[in-house]
Amino acid sequence: MKRVHVVGVGLNPLDIPCRLSEKISNAQVLAGGKRLLYWFKDHPARRIIIESPVSEAVKRIKEEAVAGKQVAVLADGDPMFFGIGSLLARTLGKENIVIYPNVTILQVAAARLGIPWNNMPTVSLHGRRDLMPLLRALVKNDRVAVFTDPDFHPARVADELIRKGVDTFSMFVFENLARDSEKLEHLPLEEAAKRTFSPLNFIILDRIEKPAIPLHLGMDDDLYLHQEGLITKKEIRAAGLAALEIMPHHTIWDLGAGCGSVAIEASLLADKGVVFAVEKDPERVHLIRRNIGRMGAYSVEVIHGEIPDCLESVPDPDRIFIGGGLGRDNQVLETTTGRLKPGGKLVLHIVLMGSFSITREYLESLQWSYSISEVHISRSTEIACDLRMEALNPVYIVSARKPQD
């Protein structure tokens, strides 16, 4: 198999270094997207168009290389930076490719703004159906670079961020970088959502203000907007999150989410996953959304509806937390534990003895191993010139693990 040359051509064909131009000139087969191939429309080489499904183009590239043809694959910027290089390395083998990196669009965009890019997270929306990777990045970062695509163009990204309640970022839109028609605009999201942009675009989202309330674990109860008495108390919340054993990639369901306190803090632990706050009461749903916006917990997805119907299109969970809404039978447990992934955990906060009995009987019928902790919390309160301890309602924390298949 002849080694495949994977060439980063930069942002303009006039800027390709001579040694890279030579690799392209000597190619018997040129592979790349239609736009890059058009730059070399007079090249005599056989052509392979890289388009969806990409696997078909990669198969043809391999066939040509195995046949002894000299193949050059054209890539934007650095082929290993959100490019085709990593796919070719996995498919053809690292020993069968040679990577020639060039300047990336992120480097050029940052240079135009005069800002460093070495610590700037970059998100690709190519082929995605949602903004979740971007929302995760916005939680902890002040600047985020975004590769768009024809579906997730700048106007749509801005519109969806507004719908999500993101109001702490503005948008730099770069069009036709390194071309004569290059254009750079700095826009509020509301303005960007109304505009039409060149298909060749790139985005940097820039934080314009911090969230009203800094997001962290162990938030005081009064920082959350909530209905009187309907919040998982800070100390109990911490114990429940510990029992869930959340990993960064987990999908989490918070059922009967109330004001969203558990879901919001769980999102800090599942910072590469997703947390769904499920609530049927419309007023509480409104409070969850307001708390997400005030704390910048943009990666929490709010589901408004009745269980189980509202969960049909939601991914199966690694963890389920139930803090309210268990009812007088095991219907919620029956309709949700079946969706829990093997090895996943179920954690419930229970105050009422009837709910406690239902839960125990149901878990024993499934023959799941489980543990119970009874948590008593007392908080200091002032009295005269001194302090006394005031007890909160005790809570049972039931923790169960679904057996592996």
Q: Report the C-alpha radius of gyration, rounded.
A: 27 Å
Separation of the first and last Cα atoms: 42 Å
Counted by DSSP, the helix tally is 13
Strand tally, please? Answer: 19
Lateral strand order in the biggest sheet = 13-12-11-14-15-19-16
Task: Write up this protein.
With 405 residues, the protein is of the alpha/beta class. Helices cover 30% and strands 25% of the residues. It is built from 13 helices and 19 strands. The longest helix is centred in the C-terminal third of the chain and has 14 residues, at 282-295. It is elongated. It starts with a strand and ends with a strand.
List the helices and strands and how they pair.
Layout: E1 4-8, H1 18-25, E2 29-32, H2 34-39, E3 46-49, H3 54-66, E4 71-75, H4 85-92, E5 97-100, H5 105-113, E6 122-124, H6 132-140, E7 143-147, H7 154-163, E8 169-175, E9 183-188, H8 189-192, E10 201-207, H9 234-244, E11 251-255, H10 261-269, E12 274-279, H11 282-295, E13 300-304, E14 319-322, H12 331-337, E15 345-350, H13 353-366, E16 369-375, E17 378-383, E18 386-391, E19 395-401
Parallel strand pairs: 1-4, 1-5, 2-3, 2-4, 6-7, 11-12, 11-14, 12-13, 14-15
Antiparallel strand pairs: 7-10, 8-9, 8-10, 15-19, 16-19, 17-18
